[in-house]
Specification:
The chain has about 270 residues and is α/β, with parallel strands linked by helices. Helices cover about 50% and strands about 15% of the residues. It has a single domain, classed as Rossmann fold, CATH 3.40.50.720.
């Protein structure tokens, strides 16, 4: 490869930090992007504080990256937030925010850096196992954004076929990060404030806690990223630590899933 620069968003997150350190340990030049500062100090690491949903900050970031290098080997999009919200009771402001962070920050960054990628470069987008399956109740906001990422990645991959750029999506299950703590606090807030769903949300608490305890080590994602960067022909998608319960549920007809959710979460 002509250079070994890797641009990585969400560099301070649970997945991002582990991936950054793994990349540095494998001699990649890492350009980390996060809304917060980093305490990683390494000669091959440059960190930019940037809100990717802010047009002015993002344009300044793009200028700085282009001044730093004229070629990028890979863009890894890990930046994202979680929301557990009711489609009925959740705010439109929250929906707009999660779409901006989880989808548009990825869309804009890839679009504005594409000229620095060439044949055999990679774009890796973090989707989710939730994008594969029929969505669960009260997970709509998050599911919408991950299904957007999933579809976007497929279209981007097919367009980038003509450019020799490899596009990969990661459909990951739950990992042990601060996002899990966020899920619990989001649930508690929704339960405290709901007008319509007190009973199903109360029943759902046990099920949610059981799934959260199954979370996996973020190093699995870091190691997977290294594999995708090094292998000559990466797969178009990688599924890692997906939920057996979700897989079983989605083997059933959707109407049957509706009935199960209604009877079990009541």
């Amino acid at each position: 490869m002509n250079s070994n620069y890797v641009v990585l968003t969400g560099a301070n997150g649970g997945l991002g930090r582990n991936t950054t350190l793994a990349l540095l340990n494998n001699n990649y030049q890492v350009i980390g992007i996060d809304i917060a500062p980093s305490n990683i100090t390494h000669s091959n690491y440059t960190h930019y504080v940037c809100d990717l949903t802010n047009d002015a900050q993002r344009q300044e970031l793009i200028t700085n990256i282009k001044n730093q290098t004229n070629h990028i080997y890979a863009i890894i999009n890990l930046a994202g937030i979680f929301m557990m919200q009711s489609i009925i009771e959740g705010s439109s402001e929250d929906l707009n925010k999660i779409i901006q962070v989880n989808f548009f920050s990825m869309y804009y960054l890839n679009k504005e850096l594409i000229e620095l990628l060439d044949n055999n470069s990679r774009i890796i987008n973090m989707s989710s196992e939730i994008a594969i399956y029929s969505p669960q109740p009260f997970m709509g906001y998050y599911a919408i954004t991950k299904k957007m990422v999933d579809t976007y990645s497929d279209v981007l991959r097919r367009e980038c076929n003509y450019l020799g750029i490899k596009v990969v999506k990661i459909q990951s299950g739950s990992m042990k990060t601060k996002m899990l703590t966020k899920a619990d606090s989001e649930y508690q807030e929704m339960l405290n404030n709901t007008k319509y769903f007190k009973s199903p949300l109360t029943t759902m608490k046990y099920m949610m806690d059981r799934e959260i305890t199954k979370n996996a080590n973020p190093d699995l994602i870091a190691n997977l990223m290294l594999k995708i960067l090094k292998v000559k022909k990466p797969k178009i998608r990688y599924r890692i630590k997906n939920s057996k319960a979700l897989r079983f549920m989605n083997a059933l007809p959707e109407k049957m899933q509706d009935n199960i959710y209604k009877k079990v979460i009541k």
